[in-house]
Write a structure and sequence with these properties.
This protein is α/β, with parallel strands linked by helices and about 325 residues long. It is built from six helices and 16 strands. The protein has a single domain, classed as Metallo-dependent phosphatases (Purple Acid Phosphatase, chain A, domain 2). A hairpin with a 2-residue loop joins strand 13 and strand 14. The protein is globular, with a radius of gyration of 19 Å. The relative contact order is 0.21.
Length: about 325
């Protein structure tokens, strides 16, 4: 995927907000946090978006997650639930069976011991067991089966209703032939998603969460600007962006949340708010990531359906800087 500077600026004129210059964004500048008001009223409530936990016994990973969970539960206005954004453990992608099981058990134990809120799991690339080590392909828990079992999911994608809002938790992680992954939503999941959107009353607002962003400006930076254009791997952003953004805008999806990049943006485009929500772990528990502190997102849904987003720094100090 490649974009020239002229094409990128033209996209900004069409609705892609580029505060400052995209190559220096690094999550610092933010667009408006007010989301388009839907035409129908819903019940007012709050939920929290927590992405990229990267729970692990090293580097204070457990203590950091516990601190974040406690901060969520100490909010003055209590959230109804936590919507995760994937990469809940670190790292199962190239890990042994024993290490992967240890990480998932650690995640479940931390939730059980430290959190009273409902937690909705989302699959990230680090939650997929041993795709990076095909010698373990014989294991019945290989790939996403371990996450499905440990998160108690029938499928790695699902939907639920809450106080008038339809929530979609999608699985944006697809395998590549080289034992890596790509961002994509297709096949059975895409057909299910399209059918559910069609069945949903158009007046009902919806929220979508993926791990890999459907749309983001966080991928436009010095490392992706090469030969007078922007080039990025399809593991950084969903490769079916054009189709997905069109689908969302047609079905009253008001908010699309994502993680993966550990940076922040907040983009209004054709009636949909796209937010990349930083990371609970910051820079993999080594401090802030390009200036973005360890944190989580708080979304307030008003009685008229208006949504407002705020990123909360929960005060973590890295045990190991780097």
């Amino acid at each position: 995927m490649g974009f020239s500077r002229r094409e990128l600026l033209a996209a900004g004129g069409a609705g892609l907000l580029l505060p400052g210059w995209a190559g220096r964004l690094w999550g610092q500048a933010q667009a408006s946090t007010s989301i388009v008001t839907p035409e129908n009223a819903v019940g007012g409530f709050r939920f929290v978006h927590m992405t990229d936990w990267h729970i692990q016994p090293e580097k204070g990973g457990v203590e950091g997650v516990v601190k974040a969970l406690h901060r969520v539960q100490e909010l003055e206005i209590k959230p109804d639930f936590i919507l995760t954004g994937g990469d809940l453990v670190f790292d199962s992608f190239k890990a042994s069976r024993d290490r992967s099981l240890q990480l998932f058990d650690l995640f479940n134990k931390t939730i059980k011991d430290e959190c009273t809120l409902k937690v909705y799991p989302c699959i990230g690339n680090h939650d997929v067991y041993a795709w990076g080590d095909p010698t373990q392909a014989h294991d019945p828990l290989f790939g996403k089966m371990m996450a499905k079992e440990k998160f108690e999911l029938e499928k790695t994608y699902y939907a639920f209703n809450h106080k008038g809002i339809r929530f979609y938790v999608l699985d944006s992680i697809e395998p590549r032939d080289d034992n890596k992954y790509r961002g994509k939503i297709h096949g059975e999941q895409l057909e299910w998603f399209k059918a559910d959107l069609e069945a949903k009353p158009l007046m009902q607002p919806a929220v979508v969460v993926t791990h890999i962003p459907i749309f983001t400006v966080t991928v436009f930076n010095e490392s992706t600007y090469k030969n007078s254009s922007f080039e990025m791997q399809n593991g950084a952003i969903c490769e079916d962006t054009i189709m997905l953004t069109s689908l969302l805008e047609k079905h009253n999806v008001k908010l699309a949340l994502s993680g993966h990049i550990h940076l922040r943006d907040n983009i209004q485009m054709r009636g949909v708010q796209y937010i990349n929500g930083g990371a609970v772990c910051g820079s993999w528990w080594k401090g802030p990531h390009h200036g973005v502190q360890e944190g989580f997102g708080v979304v307030d849904v008003a009685a008229d359906g208006t949504m407002k987003y705020e990123y909360v720094d929960y005060g973590w100090e890295a045990v190991e800087e780097g």
